[in-house]
Amino acid sequence: MALAMLKNPTEAQLGWQALVKAVEQFATAADLADIIAIVRATARDISGADGVCFVMRDGECCHYVEEHAIGPLWKGKRFPLTACISGWCMLNDKSAVIPDIYVDPRIPHDAYRPTFVKSLVMVPVKTDTPIAAIGTYWAETREFSADELALIEALGRSTSAAIGAVQLRQSLIESEHRLAMALDAGGLGAFELNVATSEMIATPAAKAMFGIDPDAACSRNDFVAAIHPDDRDAVAWLFETGLSRDEEYRTADSSRRLELRCRMVTDGDGTPIRVTGVVRDVTERHQAKERLESLRAELVRVARLNDLGAMASALAHELNQPLAAASNYLHAAERLLDRDLTQARGAITKAEAQFVRTKDIIQRIRGFVGQGKSERTSEDIEVVCREVLELARMTARYEDVAMYLKAETGLPKVEIDKVQIQQVLFNLLRNAVEAMGGSAKRRVTISVSRDGDMVKLVVADTGPGLAPEIAAHLFLPFHTTKEGGMGVGLSLCRKIVEAQGGKLWHEPGDPGATFIFTVPVAAA
Ligand code: ADP
User: Fold this and answer.
1) Which of 164, 210, 212, 225 is the most exposed place for a label (fewest CB within 10 A)?
2) Contact, 189 vs 208, CB < 8 A?
3) Would the CATH topology of 3-171 be identical to that of 375-524?
């Protein structure tokens, strides 16, 4: 509206100027309280009124939160929405223009009588729906020109817009806060690269992962320099293209590993503007992967024991021949002893040579099962068991068996050859799993507890238990109920455990079989 067309240009001009000032102030308002303060300070200058009120909707009430007037109005008071003009304004989403309050039925006259007010204009303030109203009051009855009304309504709309902006900013802050929390929870850092300036904006977590001072300004080059020289080209390429690869990048000193995911943001023409991304420290995941690899290698070693059945028959075959030969030479030597000592000696030497061959064969098999030398170290038995379970779970046939570890708290360290004890455990697990093939419930539990100066391991399954013909000769080699089984496993397990100062025995379970063995507590 052109100022020159107004009825009272000077006053109106002042009003519009005051409104412009208020709008400027609204731009820096941080919250609703700031906006109310600005309205309070400027609304009388804008409207030329004798008093102004800021009224907030509070459920079914109007709350007169602020006022600025020549005499007291209703600051701090609450009235039902239906019992006052500000309520009417909010309920109807309309301005109320009242030249004489005492002839308007919408006005609660008793509430006005103690005040100076004779006429008023009330405008709604709204975001989606009216949430407040601004009242402007005069001490005389009067008519309001369209221009005056336009100014007051503009104040209402500006206030509405300011509240909308504050709410938007607050929800932006909230969502930034939520994003920060989500990043934190996921152990993620976020960054944004300005393609034109190479300037990098990053969260403190992202900077920390790249080893960059959280307060320092930084650029793309600082981020690239924080990466190991061999991985730098890959990261630079990532920042250039915004294309993520399934790769981990080492930090400059190789102490940490980072995973980066990026996205390129382009303008309407497809020109790159920003690369946004997240970074995660995956050092621990990497270490776990490495550990898994070494466990896998160990599995191969432990699994050798399971091949013992097949190997034992090959071994028997191989040993048979030199032993038979040696026996023949010895018989011959016996016969030759009182006839031809030289020939007898020759036969004994040949027999010896055959024994050396058998010794070689036996040594070979010892090497194969890793029993050559027992290396006993102080170990955490819970970790020993956990690793075996981890290994077992990696083997497909153990998949549909539930395996539990129940370890007493505060267990002491044990003095064992870790690999050999793991072989024993693995063998007991394998036997249990094989026995439960036809069982509805398939569960193996390893329970670990202290038993004096020993630690006791109980491996209990829910299978059918031992076949009677086996129970009597359980730990003697070559007793088996399995096709292709050699029945060497348990006898060897017992030998391993006994060599380490422990015992291994069987107790019938209810249902199933229970194998128990002990290992010595390590000297403190
Ligand atoms: P193998 O497994 O080669 O037969 P083992 O010495 O390990 O040799 O086991 C001997 C026999 O003991 C098995 O054939 C099986 O009949 C029996 N056995 C071992 N463990 C269990 C178990 N948990 N439940 C039932 N029977 C078992």
Assistant:
1) 164
2) yes
3) no
pTM for this model (two decimals): 0.45
Domain at 186-281, CATH class: alpha beta
Q: Find the 381 Cα to ligand 1 centroid distance in Å.
A: 24
Residue with CA at minimum distance from ligand 1 atom 23 = 432
Q: What is the pLDDT, as a whole number, of residue 8?
A: 55
Rounded distance between C-alpha atoms, residue 330 and residue 314, angstroms: 25
**Comparing 134-143, 175-184, 409-418, which segment has the lowest mean pLDDT?**
175-184
Q: Which residue has the tokens 């309205």?
A: 39
CB of 460 shorter than 6 A to ligand 1: no
Helices 308-336, 283-306: inter-axial angle, 10-degree rounding: 40
For 229-242, the DSSP string reads HHHHHHHHHHHHH-
Q: What is the pLDDT of residue 383?
A: 92
Instruction: Give me the CATH code for the 375-524 domain, please.
Output: 3.30.565.10
Q: Does ligand 1 come within 6 angstroms of the Cβ of 489?
A: yes
Contact 453, 521 (CB under 8 A): yes
pLDDT tens-place string over residues 289-315:
777 766 666 665 555 555 555 556 556
Ordered by start, the domain boundaries in the chain are: 3-171, 186-281, 288-373, 375-524
Label residue 14 by pLDDT band (50, 70, 90).
confident
Kindly give the distance from the C-alpha atom of residue 481 to the centroid of ligand 1, in angstroms, as a whole number.
7
More confident call, 105 vs 176 = 105
Instruction: Decide if domain 3-171 falls under CATH 3.30.450.40.
Output: yes
Q: Which of 57, 53, 46 is CA-nearest to residue 91?
A: 57
Q: What is the mean pLDDT of residues 250-259?
A: 92
Beta strands in 71-129 (DSSP E): 78-80, 96-98, 119-126
Taking 80 as the threshold, does the pLDDT of residue 484 lie above it?
Answer: no
| Residue to probe by mutation, ligand 1, list 433, 480, 492, 507, most atoms within 8 Å of CB | 480
